[in-house]
Amino acid sequence: MAWLLQRPLCFLGFGFGTGLAPVAPGTFGTLPALPLAGLLLACGFGSWGITVIAILLFAFGVYVCDYTEQALGIQDYGGIVWDEIVAMLLVLAWTPDGFWWWVLAFVLFRLFDAIKPWPIRWFDQRVHGGFGIMLDDIIAALFVLLVMGVVWMVVA
What we know:
By secondary structure, this protein is mainly alpha-helical. Helix content is 74%, strand content 0%. The chain has nine helices and no strands. It has helices at 2-5, 8-13, 25-30, 33-42, 47-72, 82-93, 99-115, 120-126, 129-155. The radius of gyration is 15 Å and the shape is globular.
């Protein structure tokens, strides 16, 4: 942890330390997106506002993840979770209000991010560096939004 605190960009890359979880760092690393999205919603940011913030955080995340990866000397290390935070924030921007909707969004995101169905896996294997780290999670987020849209149409 001291290593992270001495490198603020790596601290962000590790999701404020959540990526240090000994098991399922991606799952723990996704958690900071929940209060962040809740705070943005409480401050009056709507779906489009949060989407713009997610886009800006994506661009910043390319740099953060690339820097963290180079500092570690390990390609796409599992503890780098800034990508999970940003992608989950994008998902929550368009998730209907309600506890169970957020639970469903979280579970679906973790499922798509872990399983990496095509084309997520294809991009994950071929696009590297900070952009590659960020890209596969954004694609997983788009899959989640598609599934959530279908579920919304069925239950609404």
